[in-house]
Amino acid sequence: MERELAALSLDDEEDEIVKVQRQVELVVNENEF
What we know:
By secondary structure, the protein is mostly helical.
């Protein structure tokens, strides 16, 4: 059970990181134009 919760929280953290990276890429792309 604890392992499953840890895996879920890790997935959530990775999802947040991916979202932030995408936002940063969008901002960088906009600044290039």
